[in-house]
Write a structure and sequence with these properties.
- The chain is built from 22 helices and 17 strands.
- The strands form 4 sheets. Strands 3, 4, 7, 8, 9, 10, 11, 12 and 13 form a 9-stranded mixed beta sheet that branches. A 4-stranded antiparallel beta sheet has the order 14-15-16-17.
- A hairpin with a 6-residue loop joins strand 5 and strand 6.
- The protein is globular, with a radius of gyration of 33 Å.
């Protein structure tokens, strides 16, 4: 053999050892047997890849050589296209209009994500385990290449695959069962994580035992599927189970935001599959990756300039909003919770004290909240006629506040709903009171709405102590219960919802009794609230002592939970199988208990004057404005709630002017003879109870600064108009609520004469709010 040929063979042998020439005077050695993955041991006992038998395809690359240049970049880019396809397909299923610039924004974001993943993968492969990822992929290809006639090796690999899959399922089941048992047997928030942690070890052990048992049972089978067939079967089973899960728990998955995992999952799985099955390289991967990153970044920035693209990405897709949130976090240079150019409107990118979320300090010469002015709207002082009211009897009345979680106003019969008879009992009771036809909550989540109501401000006008969720009131705030207790009232709360079981939440301040009465029960919760409070609602028996007038007046707060997701299909009433039908069934179920509570309060056998308020913390969303669940938007379907006042001296009528649920705070105080605190920004409805009417052009403010990925949303309702400004995506929407009650036609580009004044009023309101840094 010539020297040139010998050198060539030796050079090729560096790539694959089997190409090393054999001396002519020595017979070729018999190759050692291959193991289950098609590798043969070398003299030191290490395993190396060998060419597969004829018909098994090409040999995988040699150990330690690494993947072809750019193979990971190619795989991740294909995965990015798959994720983009998933996102755009999901957007077609909603009611948000398709946006071409929004589609480009989605494509650009997932291209950036793919290039970033490729760069991270290449660095890890080079620094942490050179050739390691390639060895794993080659082993996977070898396992998939095993044929049915290679029974011993196929059985071994298939057994590992099946036992691993079963052990994983068993582990998930064991952990879920352990957590369910802990949650059902303890009410302590301290013991739940501790007990769950203690049960984690036996859960892992049980899963391993199940996997071992499956492996041994598998080894006894006369014939077993090849790894390729087994993996295909497991993938098909996972797909069917996923489809079943989505079909049966669609609303739960939506409320949990679980669909946001779909696009990232597609990105990862497709990229891995491409790399394992077809690890082909790309020419000049580094310049190509850099060029794609620059092009994608330019596409994202240019698309982001279009309001329709920002709205589409945040509301119509599953995952893109979270990618945007990541970019916004990166562009928040001063870490004040507000992004800088090009993804936010921080007017002082390097000054954390100045941003659109800062509270404006008027007259100091500094524009803290970036609205271009150095002024704020002052809270309206309570007028003397509204400051106190004592019934003609001169006796302090009992006060009752009844709230129902997630109760939409437009799904109640007395509010005009005709699709289903959702509220027959409640309709009859509402006829005895004052019905406010346009009452709006100050937030779309239970926690913010209720802490807002209890101090008479919007959620982030309240001074909060940021200690997790829900946050606590600062010492400077005085709650409704504390005001009434100081006025001589006994205070009682009977509430349903795990949020109220949090003993650290000082919403309970001022209550003599504050009880979460449902104890995490899953369904049919109305009776527990009613029965726990019956003694506080019903008139005393004839032989009971003391009577109504001999005891102190009382303030009672009841919170019903049934209409909140997840919905229960009630056998007593059948409205349909869709989520919105089940929601109506839940309303029908709970309204009977709410109506019974109100009838007990209004029983003429009571001798002390009584006033009751029926309302809700927020409404509910069924895809009218995107995929967000109820706690993430401020549209009408989520914030338009019932508000009914009933009781002594209240003459039935309907009020068409807009009011705020936070108005309950000063109104109940005035009914108790307590003046409206100067710190409150809500208005008392006492003049309306006495026959007057609310101001038709009074501004009703709303805000949402807790939900993710879209947060920091502020809104204004004035007269017929609803102005919504999303500070996260810097979008503005304007709707005529009377002509367009479903809020479909955004009028912001029509330049209505009212728009400028509405914008100025909303900007001024934003200056009165202060989102704690921990919640930005």
């Amino acid at each position: 053999m010539g020297s040139a040929d010998g050198l060539a063979l030796h050079a090729l042998a560096l790539y694959h050892p089997r190409l090393m020439p054999v001396p002519p005077d020595e017979p070729p050695a018999d190759p050692p047997a291959r193991d289950a993955l098609g590798t043969r041991p070398d003299e030191a006992g290490r395993h190396d890849r060998a060419s597969p038998p004829a018909g098994e395809g090409l040999a995988p690359p040699a150990v330690g050589v690494g993947s072809p240049p750019g193979a990971w970049l190619r795989a991740w880019l294909v995965g990015g296209l798959a994720a983009t396809t998933v996102e755009l397909a999901a957007s077609l299923d909603g009611e948000v209009p398709f946006s071409a610039s929004g589609a480009l924004l989605v494509l650009g974001l997932f291209t950036l994500a793919a290039v970033l993943c490729a760069a991270v993968t290449a660095v890890l492969e080079a620094l942490v385990a050179p050739g390691g990822l390639d060895r794993v992929s080659a082993s996977a290809r070898g396992a998939l290449a095993l044929r049915a006639d290679e029974e011993t090796r196929a059985r071994r690999v298939s057994g590992r695959i099946l036992s691993s899959a079963v052990a994983t399922v068993a582990l998930v089941f064991d952990v879920a069962l352990a957590v369910a048992l802990v949650v059902r047997t303890t009410r302590s928030d301290t013991w739940v994580p501790l007990a769950s942690g203690l049960l984690a070890l036996p859960a892992v052990g049980g899963a391993l035992l199940v996997g071992l048992a499956v492996r041994r049972a598998f080894d006894t089978l006369p014939r077993v599927p090849t790894p390729r067939v087994l993996l295909a079967s497991l993938a098909l089973a996972a797909l069917l189970l996923s489809a079943l899960l989505v079909a049966t728990h669609h609303e739960t998955l939506s409320h949990l935001g679980a669909y946001a995992l779909c696009a990232p999952t597609a990105l990862v799985l497709v990229a891995l599959a491409v790399f394992v099955r077809a690890p082909r390289g790309l020419r000049r991967p580094a310049p190509l990756g850099l060029a794609l990153a620059v092009l994608a970044a330019a596409t994202v920035v240019l698309s982001w300039r279009q309001p329709s693209a920002r709205a589409f990405a945040g509301r119509a897709t599953w995952s893109t909003g979270y990618l945007v949130a990541g970019l916004q976090s990166l562009s928040d240079l001063d870490r004040d919770g507000v992004a800088s150019f090009p993804f936010g409107g921080d007017c002082a990118p390097l000054d954390a004290t100045r941003n659109p979320l800062a509270r404006e300090l008027p007259g100091n010469g500094v524009d803290e909240n970036c609205d271009g002015t150095d002024s704020v709207v002052e809270a309206s002082p309570a007028r003397a006629a509204e400051s106190a009211f004592v019934p003609l009897s001169g006796v302090a009345p009992d006060l009752f506040l009844i709230t129902v979680d997630a109760l939409r106003a437009d799904h109640l019969g007395f509010m005009g709903y005709r699709t289903h008879p959702t509220s027959p009992d409640l309709d009859a009771v509402a006829e005895r009171g004052i019905v406010f036809e346009r009452a709006y909550s100050q937030d779309s989540g239970t926690g913010p709405s209720l802490w807002s109501l209890m101090v008479g401000k919007t959620p982030f006008q309240v001074e909060l102590v940021a200690e997790g969720f829900p946050p606590n009131y600062a010492e400077s705030e005085t709650t409704l219960a504390e005001h009434l207790k100081a006025a001589g009232y006994t205070t009682h709360a009977r509430l349903c919802g795990s949020l109220f079981a949090n003993v650290a939440w000082n919403l309970r301040r001022g209550f003599d009794e504050f009880d979460e009465v449902c104890h995490r029960r899953p369904r049919d919760l109305g009776p527990f609230v009613l029965e726990s409070a019956r003694a506080l609602l019903a008139p005393p028996a004839d032989d009971a002592a003391p009577g109504d007038l001999e005891r102190a007046p009382r303030f009672v707060w009841l919170h019903f939970f049934d209409p909140h997701h997840p919905y229960v299909d009630h056998e007593a009433v059948r409205f349909g199988e869709q989520s919105i039908d089940l929601y109506d069934e839940e309303i029908h179920h709970v309204q009977a208990f709410v109506a019974e509570a109100l009838r007990l309060v209004l029983d003429p056998a009571h001798t002390r004057p009584r006033y009751a308020v029926l309302s809700a913390d927020h409404g509910e969303n069924f895809g009218e404005h995107g995929r967000d669940p109820h706690a993430r938007t401020l549209y009408r379907e989520v914030t338009h709630v019932p508000l009914v006042f009933l009781g002594s001296d209240v003459l039935p009528r309907r009020v068409p002017e807009p009011v705020a649920t936070g108005d309950v705070f000063p109104t109940l105080l005035n009914l108790a003879g307590v003046p409206t605190p100067s710190s409150a920004t809500m208005e008392s409805l006492l003049p309306t109870l006495l026959g007057g009417s609310p101001a038709p052009d009074r501004p009703i403010f709303q805000e949402n600064s807790w939900s993710r990925p879209t947060h920091h949303v502020k809104a204004l309702i004035r007269g017929r108009y609803h102005l919504i400004r999303d500070l996260t995506t810097d979008t503005v929407e304007l709707y005529d609520m009377l002509a367009d009650p479903r809020e479909r036609n955004n009028l912001v580009d029509d330049e209505l004469p009212e728009q400028r004044q509405l914008m100025q009023t909303l900007e001024t309101f934003i200056g009165t709010t202060n989102v704690p840094e921990a919640y930005r």
